[in-house]
Design a protein that fits this description.
It is a single chain. The chain is an alpha+beta fold. It has 2 helices and 6 strands; from the N terminus they run αββββαββ. It has a 4-stranded antiparallel beta sheet with strand order 1-2-6-5. Strands 3-4 form a two-stranded antiparallel sheet. Helices cover about 15% and strands about 40% of the residues.
Length: about 80
């Protein structure tokens, strides 16, 4: 997902934050106890993402923050 769109989604999730994993950006975490309701609309049809499918697991040994399943991808235009 484009960075601006990912930022907009995660700005709606309380206490979420941008993180780096293994030196790579584009990841976001949020409190593991937070229930997340996300939906996308394509061609007028709404598709919901279940909270347990949005949570990609803990990002550290404390288990306080979990990885969000939506990632921000930086793309480059072809020369």
């Amino acid at each position: 997902m484009p960075p601006a769109d990912a930022q907009q989604v995660y700005s709606q999730i309380p206490n979420s934050r941008s993180i780096n994993l293994q030196g790579e950006s584009g990841y976001y975490s949020f409190p593991c106890t937070q229930s997340v309701n996300v939906a996308f609309t394509f061609g007028g049809q709404q598709y919901s993402v279940a909270s347990d499918q949005f949570n990609a697991g803990a990002v550290d040994s404390t288990g306080q923050y979990c990885l969000g399943a939506l990632l921000s991808l930086h793309t480059r235009s072809a020369p």
